[in-house]
Specification:
By secondary structure, the chain is α+β, with helices and mostly antiparallel strands. It folds into two domains: 127 residues, Ribosomal protein L10, N-terminal RNA-binding domain (Alpha-Beta Plaits, 2-Layer Sandwich); 45 residues. 57% of the residues lie in helices and 16% in strands. It has six helices and five strands; from the N terminus they run αβαβαβαββαα. A five-stranded antiparallel β-sheet has the order 2-3-1-4-5. A hairpin with a 2-residue loop joins β4 and β5. α1 crosses α3. The longest helix is centred in the last third of the chain and has 42 residues.
């Protein structure tokens, strides 16, 4: 039994973490042995991914504290749960896919990613294939560079033509 003051502290800390990392995953690691879980935690630490095992009632309160509707993940908040998040929205999904190859007994339950809710094992492939915000921004910048170069080239060319016309006109006025 967890003392009430400790529960309040857990809810506060987890609520802050969920506000800071709005893209998070929920999974069940309960079928792993202690040494296996220790290895998973070390691997996650190396990839800047955090895993927090938490009681579902405390997770519901933390979701509410962070400003989320606690019912959004209601279908997955049964049985043992762990919250997983990282610096990138998609890194935990990729980590989880790799993890399931080694430990198929680990169960992906659901996620809140890019303001969408994904529930069920079948959603993991979709989440793992999503591009991160940084990758999407890079794609947009690349897509905009070519047209911008064309526009700049046209403007420079037009500027040279206008300068030539003005020079010709000023020479005519002087003669």
């Amino acid at each position: 039994m967890i003392p009430k003051h400790k529960k309040v502290e857990i809810v506060e800390q987890l609520g802050e973490a969920l506000r800071a990392h709005p893209d998070f995953y929920v999974a069940d690691f309960s079928r792993l042995s202690a040494p296996q879980m220790s290895r998973v935690r070390m691997e996650s630490y190396d990839q800047a991914i955090t895993i927090k095992v938490v009681k579902n009632t405390l997770l519901r309160r933390a979701l509410e504290k962070a400003g989320y509707d606690p019912d959004m993940l209601a279908p997955v908040l049964e049985g043992p749960s762990a919250v997983i998040y990282g610096e990138s929205a998609t890194a935990p999904a990729r980590f989880f896919k790799k993890l399931q190859k080694e430990y198929p007994q680990v169960e992906f339950k659901g996620a809140h990613v890019y303001e969408g809710v994904y529930i069920g094992k079948d959603q993991l492939d979709r989440l793992a294939s999503l591009k991160s915000r940084e990758e999407l921004i890079g794609d947009i910048v690349l897509a905009l560079q070519a047209p911008m170069r064309n526009v700049l080239g046209s403007l420079q060319s037009a500027g040279q033509k206008i300068a030539g016309i003005l020079k010709t006109l000023s020479e005519k006025d002087q003669s």
